[in-house]
Amino acid sequence: FSPAKQKYNIMEKTIEDVLEAHDKDGYLIAVSDGSVKHMHQMSFGWVLSTADGVHLATSYGGCDGRGSSLRAEAVGMLSISLVIALMAKHSKRTNIKIVYVSDNLELINRNKEHLNYTDPYPNNTLAAEFDITEQICLTNLTYNIEASFQHVYGHQDTKSRGEMSIKAILNVEADRLAGDHQDQLGAYSPI
User: What is residue 35's three-state secondary structure?
Assistant: First the structure.
């Protein structure tokens, strides 16, 4: 995949192929990552894959607002959750299982905690980036997506941790996509 040669939103399979892969494995993996440069220049990248790491779709894009790693990574997770929601709506499916993966532990913890309640607590609404993390949960709830959340250590390609797991490899790819957006299309975007 070379973003310079192709569009940055790539659906590598048809919706039917994606759902067939889901049914074969019982779930799909949705890995997102983010990038922040110069306070307000943010981007995200994500990969949707089968359980054994075969890419089904990839995307990257920009992110506006106050510069924050949590915000950039949450926008990536929201983006992929919306694509999954559109597939669910298109196919009239209500039993899609997704394992969301991120190297941002705060994002993972917030989403895991939110699985235990539907209405946010007042203190949660005051947390940074609540608007995005809440929308991730509402998207999954609205489209009956059975979501689970897993943390993966980031940048394992630059650290000596032994052989990387499929989720770690996908995280490296999502990170590369976010960086590609910064390098090729990123622009200063003040609040």
Answer: strand
